[in-house]
Amino acid sequence: SDGIILSMGGQLPNNIAMDLHRQQAKVLGTSPESIDSAENRFKFSRMLDRKGILQPRWKELTNLKSAIEFCEEAGYPCLVRPSYVLSGAAMNVAYSNQDLETYLNAASLVSKEHPVVISKFLTEAKEIDVDAVA
Predict the structure, then answer these.
(1) pTM of model > 0.85
(2) What is the CB neighbour count within 10 angstroms for residue 39?
(3) How far apart are CA 8 and CA 109, in angstroms?
(4) N or C terminus of the chain with fewer C-beta within 10 Å?
(5) The pLDDT value given to residue 89
(6) CATH class of the structural domain 55-120
(7) Which residues form the ATP-grasp domain (predicted)?
């Protein structure tokens, strides 16, 4: 084949992109590095900072106690999701400590390799999602 197109299968293609890149597979379309930059919350956040784009307060967390502390400090509601997931898998808005615990359990089932990201949920904001093919 001429290469691999990572576009079908939900989250799976994004998860294997860097492994394929390290194996020197020829990936057609969006580069594995670009996929990783969008998936990895730290890399994505740094890019937004460099471009001067505001973002909600967020933190990567690994236990319930620190998650509750962050949410209480940032103020509910908070968005809870696995850190390496672009899709909406296990993404939920927590309005209380009880919601938070329920959603953290669901998020940890999606991605054991990556911590959970919790960010302040902005109720008066709009999210715009753009997909393009060129």
Answers:
(1) no
(2) 20
(3) 22
(4) C
(5) 64
(6) alpha beta
(7) 45-133
